[in-house]
Every structure is written in structure tokens, then in C-alpha cells.
Amino acid sequence: MEEQKSDVLKRLQGQIREFVAERDWEPFHTPKNLAISLSVEAAELLEPFQWLATGGSEELGEEKMRHVRDEMADVFIYLLRMADKLDVDLVDAVHHKLALNRQKYPAEVVKGSAKKYSDY
Q1: What are the residue ranges of helices labelled H in the chain?
Q2: pLDDT at 4 > cutoff 80
Q3: Handedness of CA 96, 98, 102, 104 (dihedral sign)
Q4: Coil, strand, or helix at residue 101?
Q5: Which of 22, 53, 60, 88 could form a disulfide with 83 if both were Cys (CB 3.0 to 4.6 A apart)?
Q6: How far, CA to CA in Å, does 83 sit from each of 44, 56, 109, 116?
């Protein structure tokens, strides 16, 4: 199962690479520019949630949910592109980060709390 997900990410990265190449955008896709674009898209993802109580799908409505979906896709595309450019295996990176977070936030210590690890 995990191998299949990794293959899906690799195929997506190939499709994104092809999309970029067709438009001759490669010179603009530096890691710095991709990081900036990722941040911009993440900020755009926030807009539909502004002033909502919880931001659940029932509160967002159909139109805002479409916008959220599109912005999430933009964030994901830029993240995949950046990982591709920097040769980062995102599946491996997530496993590594989860292991680190398990150490920082042991379930028996933090369960039910929103405190940061440094506040314990």
C-alpha cells in the first residue's frame, strides 16, 4: 500500500514536470521561488476560513469548498515540485518527522492537550 502511494507521488511529480516543461517554466522553478509560491498558496488557502467559527465543510458551503480544494491542490503541487527539485522523498520525510514528533509529544504526556512540547 505504502509503495503504491509513493508511486502515485512520483507519477504526479512527473506530470508536474511535464506541465512545467511544456510552458518553459523550469528557469523560474528554483527552490527559493517554489518555497515562496508555496507560502503564497498556503495563505490563499486561509482566505475562505476568515471570520468563520470553525471552518467545517458545512460552514464553508459549496463555493468556498471548491476554492479550498483548488488552493489545497496548489499547495500540494508546489510542495511536490519543491521536493522534486531538492530530491526529497516526501514519504520518507513524513515517516522521519512522525518519529521525531512521537518523541517530542509522547501520547501519555500530551493526550488531549494543545500545548507545545516546550510547555511541558
Answers
A1: 2-22, 31-46, 57-86, 90-104, 107-110
A2: no
A3: positive
A4: helix
A5: 88
A6: 21, 30, 33, 27
Rounding to the nearest 10 degrees, give the CA dihedral for residues 48, 50, 54, 59. -40
> Is residue 31 within 8 Å of 86, Cβ to Cβ?
yes
Buried b (16+ CB within 10 A) or exposed e, 21-59: eeeeeeeebeeebbeebbeebeeebeebeeeeeeeeeee
Residue 101: is it exposed, middle or buried by C-beta count within 10 angstroms (0-12/13-18/19+)?
A: exposed
Whole-number pLDDT of residue 2: 61
Contact 29, 80 (CB under 8 A): no
Q: Minimum mean pLDDT among 3-7, 38-42, 91-95: which range? A: 3-7
Quick: pLDDT tens for 35-71.
Answer: 999 999 999 999 999 999 999 999 999 999 999 999 9
Instruction: Evaluate the CA torsion angle 64, 46, 98, 16 in order and state its sign.
Output: positive
CB 39 within 8 A of CB 78: no
